Amino acid sequence: MNKKGFTILEMIIVLSIIALIFLITLPNIQQKQKIIQNKGCDALKEVVNSQILLYELETLNKPGSISDLIGEGYLKDSQRRCPNGAAIEIVNGQAESN
């Protein structure tokens, strides 16, 4: 009688290999996620800077804070913070994250 299928030992070996691959790649994935979040924050600051410029051109005034841009519809409330959680602020007419 021939049974087709996996034995418990074969399944344990395959699962061990998959777990080992996962443990090797996990730190690399976490490092890349941090880089992506920082790049996302830089991109968001550029968006805010362009909206600061547009605000200045249309109102002939500089925005005092990010709330001015949100209140006037230049930005959404979700653009107040970077993907990494840092708050966007306007310092000397430029977007900065802290």
TrEMBL record:
Q: Where in the cell is it found?
A: Cell membrane
State a GO cellular component annotated for this protein.
Answer: plasma membrane
Q: Name one GO biological process term.
A: establishment of competence for transformation
Principal subcellular localization: membrane
Record membrane topology: Single-pass membrane protein
Keywords linked to the UniProt accession: Cell membrane, Membrane, Methylation, Transmembrane, Transmembrane helix
Any Pfam family from its record, for instance, is N_methyl
Q: Where are the transmembrane segments?
A: 6-26
Task: Identify the domain of life.
Answer: Bacteria
Family listed? Belongs to the ComGC family.
Which NCBIfam families does the UniProt entry name for this protein? Answer: IV_pilin_GFxxxE, pilin_ComGC
Q: What is this protein called?
A: Prepilin-type N-terminal cleavage/methylation domain-containing protein
